[in-house]
Specification:
The chain is an alpha+beta fold. It has a single domain, classed as phage-related protein like fold, CATH 3.90.1690. Helix 1 crosses helix 4.
């Protein structure tokens, strides 16, 4: 029985792609999982995201018979993002094609190949999601999205200062060194971890008054926070929301604190860890409806004994309000602690 590649493509898109899309995000990390749950669809050449910040309003007091100025205070009302393609491939060699002569043989080979696609695409996506780079060839990294400089979404943050996230380091924290464990654990220092949590949350609330939804930290910082928040080790309060999704998170003021080793991979040393305070109401993933982890038809390249199909995801990571997020940098986070040295 010859393998029918049209039927195979339909099978992959109907049976495997929904599972891959679901498992791709469920098995990565809590932040990406939450972003997937609220992902949006676009179909244009650009992703246009209306801005959500205080200066975009034209609220005003009026008097009797007064003409109302309908123009917003600031002329910029939306950020524009270029969608980017993530592509992986599924390859079936002629040898495999010859043995895929039954439904069970097809299923066994596809199961193994789709697992490899899942793992490879996950690694590729997460590496670039956490990369400390402003490169434009890939999806926007979280580093670029939560930054206090540069042009992002077509908006220059130097000209429009409201288009800056809050970024703190040793020089702006008011004393202490966040790269030293002793200062992170010293309640008298501004760098005491519990004070860092309070400071980051306060800065996130500056513009909209809203708490962040997630605080992403390296495993090393998460473990120190566990000691501080639960000194008697009687069982610190864990986030029920994160637990229901299969993740562990500390609960601080109702905000999930999540350990993420994917963050640590992006580090170059032991003292450049990040703490990310993120408000998910203003952070989005967009996917094109025609390329939302969709398999394309199988083709045989010239002079090749195999056929391949491309699996594409077309979209980007976008922000509607940079000022609703905060990042604390240069925090101690030894890579060897997470087994990544």
């Amino acid at each position: 029985m010859a393998l029918n590649y049209d039927t195979l493509t339909a099978l992959i898109n109907e049976k495997y792609m929904p599972t891959l899309y679901d498992q791709f995000f469920k098995k990565t990390n809590y932040l990406v999982n939450r972003l997937k749950a609220k992902a949006k669809t676009f179909n244009g050449r650009k992703i246009v995201v209306p801005l959500e910040y205080a200066d975009g309003s034209n609220a005003q007091a009026t008097t009797k018979y007064q003409h109302i100025n309908l123009a917003p205070i600031d002329p910029i009302t939306a950020a524009e993002y270029e969608p980017k393609m993530i592509t992986d491939s599924l390859i079936i060699s002629l040898e495999e094609e010859l043995v895929m002569n039954s439904d069970m043989a097809v299923k066994n080979i596809l199961d193994a190949k789709m697992k490899n696609v899942l793992k490879g695409t996950q690694k590729y996506f997460l590496t670039r999601f956490w990369a400390r780079s402003t490169a434009t060839a890939d999806w926007n990294s979280l580093y670029t999205a939560v930054l206090n400089s540069g042009t992002f979404g077509g908006i220059d943050s130097a000209t429009y200062t409201w288009w800056q996230s809050h970024v703190l380091d040793a020089a702006t924290l008011g004393g202490g060194d966040p790269s030293l464990e002793a200062d992170l654990m010293d309640p008298t220092k501004p760098t005491y971890l519990k004070k860092l949590l309070q400071r980051g949350i306060a800065l996130c609330k500056t513009q909209t008054g809203e708490d962040p939804d997630i605080i992403n930290v390296p495993q090393y910082i998460w473990d120190l926070l566990e000691l501080i928040l639960d000194p008697q080790k009687t069982g610190s309060k864990m986030s029920e929301k994160a637990g229901s999704m299969g993740f562990k998170a500390l609960d601080f003021r109702g905000i999930d604190i999540v350990a993420d080793n994917a963050m640590v991979v992006a580090q170059t040393g032991a003292t450049d860890g990040y703490m990310e305070f993120l408000n998910l109401d203003y952070l989005w993933m967009f996917f094109n409806s025609g390329a939302k982890f969709k398999a394309q038809p199988f083709v045989r390249p010239g002079n090749a004994n195999y056929k391949s199909c491309l699996i594409n995801a077309y979209g980007n990571l976008c922000v509607s309000n940079r000022g609703a997020h905060c990042r604390i940098i240069n925090v101690r986070s030894p890579k060897e602690y997470a087994g990544l040295s």
